[in-house]
Each structure stands twice: as C-alpha cells, then as structure tokens.
C-alpha cells in the first residue's frame, strides 16, 4: 500500500503490507494517483501509469546490470557475488541488450516459431480435455493442481525434449528460481536460489550435452542446430536459454490459466458470454491478461536520464515498471478499468507480455494454451463455482496457489 509518515512527506510503496498479495489492485490505484514516478527509499524507482510503462517497454533503456550505478539496497551484494552466481549467469536473452540480444533472440526465435507453436494445439487440447474429464468425474478439484500447472509444464517439457524422469526435481528447482524475481528476498532465500541455479544449470548442461550426440525432434535439438549469421549458441549460452525458456514457458502461464478461470467464475455473466460466443476467446485472453496480469513487475536500468511527472530519473537507476497497475489505469482504459469485459475493444493493448525488442518470446504459446483452456472449460461446465482460493503470496509472479472449484 502507500503510507506516509506525515502529510508533508512523500508516499512510500509497501507491497509487504497485509492483504497486498491477495488483492494488490487498490494499492496500485493509490500508487498511480499519489506517486506515478516514485523514488523508493530502498533505492529504486517505480512507474505505474500506462503511458509511462508502455513507453519504457519500447525504449532503449537497458536490462544489463553492468549499467547500474545507483544500487538498490537488495542488490547490495551483487557486485561481490560474481557473474557465476547470477541467475542463469546473466546470459539469458532477457538479460541482454543489443547487439547480443539481437543475436540470441535470432537464434532462439528460429527454434520457437509460430508454426511450431500452432502445431501444438491438438496436443494441448488433449491435455486440457483429460484434465477436465478428471475434474468432471471428481465433481470438485483444485484447478491449479489438475490443470493450470500440469498443462504448461507438460507442454514446455515436451517441446524442449526433457525426459519425464527429470521432471520432479526440475519442477522443484524452477519453483525456487522464479522467486528470484520477487523483491527483497532474505539472505536464506537468496542462498537457496543460488544453489538451485547451480544445480539446474548442471542438469541442463548434462541434458544438452546428451542431445548433441542424440538429437531429436525437440526444441533443445533445434537450438543446438540453430544459426544466426553463421553464429551458434555457446555452451553456457545454450544452457541459459534452455533454462529461461523452461521457466518462462510455464511459471507465468500457470497464473494466466488459474487467474483467468477464477476471474471468469467471479464474473458468471462474462463466462456465459464466452460460452455463447466462443469466437470471442482471443479477445477474452487479452482482457484477462489485462485484468489480472500474470507477472506484475518489469525492470529496466536507465542509460540516460528519464523525465517522468516532474521527476528526473537519473542514468544508472533501477526502474520498476508495474505492469499490473498500468493494465488497470483508468487514464488509458476508462472508468471501467477495474471491470472484466471480454469484449473490451482495446484489450490487446495490455502491457502484460512487454513490447519492443523484449516482447515475450513465449507469448504465442501462452495465448494458445489460454484460448484452448478457457473455451473448453466454458463449454464443459455450465455452472461451476469457487469453493476456495489461496494465493501464492508472491508480489511479482502472482497467482492462485490453490483454486478449489465444484462443477456439479
């Protein structure tokens, strides 16, 4: 929420206040109104209005921490830990600026094409239908455990060609790693994240080494064979891209699927609209991405000063763009920004998947999984109901940890 010590002092954004992770949107509204360009006492800046967030996404500001000269408090040990302790050693495409970003994205994109994603629709439909069959038979189920997590996890695992025997441990490790995206992790958690990072890099390195000698019809083999202007991925670069695709390929999609179905269940009129008009589903996915954003925060490091709302954000500063706040900014979306409207005409302008050169590589896959899931769920169950919701307690990669529903 926003707090202030006295009427004369600036507001301070505090996402650790009670109730924030269950429903952060009232606090985001206060942030947009009170401090749209907000310098936090912990040493970073926050942007929360749509215009500013959208502009930053399309800007040339950096994602590379070497430009960081004004160190946020929680990054105080990053200069001493060494690059080997950074998540994926800082080699993943999301941590690179051009020209290296251009090279890496070119290599990864060749193995992650729209045609390859579209070809997955029958497999995704089969997985969704099987999950819905189990839920129908039981009459009530945890939608996260039965569908929202297994679907994207299985799809990205099969795409990459990761053997089933590795899934349990990798699932645990990725669950730890994604917590690196949360602000202000305590020292104990930071140590767990570093240990998980080292272990998962080792597992992926062994897998990619095996794939070099035993290529198959999978994404890792395609990455091994991919070239961009005569260049190929180096060993550590390959490991980093595989790890990034694996984590990004399921963690945020879990929130999209579970949060989306929860939103539909809480708005039965909108669920009925989707059931009666399944052709609306593509726009419905965009509106759900806007209404309950799967990943709430994005970071950039300024390479030059950035003016915003009478403030001057200096070069070398860590800037947090609050995607979820921007996606409900009434200055852009109108007075009904807090309402779910599956037929909202400009829903596709949400900022959930980024923009510019850092637009999410897996956006097409996440959208496909959501389209198939929402359409089939709406058609299958005429009167589903929410029995229990438990949120995952995260600030950034936020979504339901448990969504118990009844379908009878």
CATH topological fold name: Cytochrome p450
Q: What is the makeup of the main sheet?
A: 4 strands, mixed
**Helix content estimate:** 40-55%
Count of the separate structural domains: 1
- What's the CATH architecture? Orthogonal Bundle
Task: Find the CATH superfamily.
Answer: Cytochrome P450
- Secondary-structure class: alpha+beta
CATH hierarchy, class: Mainly Alpha
Keywords: Heme, Iron, Metal-binding, Monooxygenase, Oxidoreductase
Family: Belongs to the cytochrome P450 family.
Protein name: Linalool 8-monooxygenase
GO molecular function: heme binding; iron ion binding; linalool 8-monooxygenase activity
Describe the protein's architecture and organization.
This protein has 408 residues and is of the alpha+beta class. It has a single domain (21-406), classed as Cytochrome P450 (Cytochrome p450, Orthogonal Bundle). The chain contains 18 helices and eleven strands. The protein has helices spanning 25-34, 50-57, 78-81, 100-110, 114-118, 121-138, 143-148, 150-160, 167-177, 187-213, 219-225, 235-248, 251-266, 268-276, 281-291, 323-326, 330-333, 363-380, and strands at 2-3, 12-13, 37-39, 45-47, 140-142, 297-301, 306-308, 311-313, 318-322, 385-391, 400-406. The strands form four sheets. A four-stranded mixed β-sheet has the order 3-4-9-6, with helices on both faces. Helix 14 (268-276) crosses helix 18 (363-380). The model is unreliable at 1-8 (pLDDT under 50).
